[in-house]
Specification:
- The longest helix has 26 residues.
- With 483 residues, this protein is α/β, with parallel strands linked by helices.
- The structure holds ligand BES, manganese (II) ion and zinc ion.
- Zinc ion (ZN) binds next to β9.
Amino acid sequence: MDIEFVAADQALSAKTALARIVYEGAKLEGVLAQAAAASRFTGAKGQTLDILAPSGVDAPRLVLVGAGKADAVDAIGIEHAAASAYAAVKASGLTAVRIELPDAKADLAAHAALGVRLASYRFDKYRTKEPAEKKPSVVKAQVVAADPAAAGKAFEPMAALADAVDFTRDLVSEPPNVLYPAEYAQRVKKLEKLGLEVEILGEAEMMKLGMGSLLAVGQGSVRDSQLVVIKWNGAADKTAQPVAFVGKGVCFDTGGISIKPADGMEDMKWDMGGSAAVAGLMHVLAGRKAKVNAIGILGLVENMPDGNAYRPGDVLTSMSGQTIEVINTDAEGRLVLADAVWYCQDRFKPKFMVDLATLTGAIIVALGGDLAGCYANDETLGANLIAASQAEGEPLWRMPLPAAYDKKIDSTIADMKNTGGRQGGSITAALFIQRFTNGVPWAHLDIAGTAWRSPSTIPTSPEGATGYGVRLLNRMVAEKYEG
Ligand code: BES
Ligand code: MN
Ligand code: ZN
């Protein structure tokens, strides 16, 4: 998507749809007032009114988009309105859309552009037969701004963000035969061109480190497990303590010997969404040259049933030295994170760690598909995450870490077991990871419900991979940990 900021008086070129974002109750002139009256269009949030060949308007098509009440509109609301405008005309055959805002301030114009960028994501590389007339035709968005140069400047970090979100979405969308751990690691390695440093550890190196927990999960796969370490050293003080992010990267989760039902198993290609969000975060930090030292760690495995697969009943020794009785091989994400999180604190001594994982079906039962669960053993970190999530429109809900539930994962043969029963399943999964944090301030985001969305319920997030997490983490770093 080509983005341009223009002055209000710039002539409209042919094949450009006009989209006017209006506040609720705004006064419309002439034919627009008539059209609005004939369709109950009031400018309420989410409303669109598509007018073809409007008389007296210098465009072949005009879309009115409601942004809601003027005093309640925020940046995310403008993104959503602009995204809806794009969606209304994207397959019209027109090639551009010009967006007019009720308030053309630079920051809002930039957010409108971000909304269109995010909404125009499409993963169609494997579709060879889609007719051209079904594909989106709009390839350019012109956003009207009071000061186009200032809007362009405000958009720079947002363009870096959109690139990163799309990188994450691409990883999550790729099929599991294409994106297995080694291929995934190589794609992340390519981010070195942005100035990141990327290290890849293979099975032999992880064996030496004693990562018996992570390695057990990948044991049944013909694909080698990988641990990817991504570094961004953007702080003025290159030795300043880093912030750290760890992601679950199960490239495919069959459940292993505790195999999952066939129905819907194809969804488990996106069981690497947590790690993809971490990779996306590192992408945007480098893309906008964030003044922070940050570490991203991806634990990449494939969970398969096999003659060599790990079994229920196995006792694993993790890098921390703690032993784990396997009850269910489908509770594999926490086993991957156990070693990745321990390694992270052991090697980098970070200020804090945030892990992201499509960890449990239980979080979807608890919170549904729009909210991710946020567990934190540090109040500042928890509050920072929630504030960032609200500002970026990536909803997050604080969940508890009750000490009394911790004994649910005690084992009689080992230090702990990898499931705590059906009740509070997302909580006991979080408590399991907490046992590997070694006292470092830590938060865990269970994004099982939010990494993938079908159908789309948010205009800036088309059906499929959402890229959830990149925006909120980027915001938190920018506001709380830079400078
Ligand atoms: N990857 C799944 C969790 C998941 C389920 C993500 C549905 C997205 C949609 C995870 O590895 C898993 O299988 N968890 C089990 C844990 C159970 C065996 C204790 C679950 O949630 O059922
Ligand atoms: Mn599983
Ligand atoms: Zn899983």
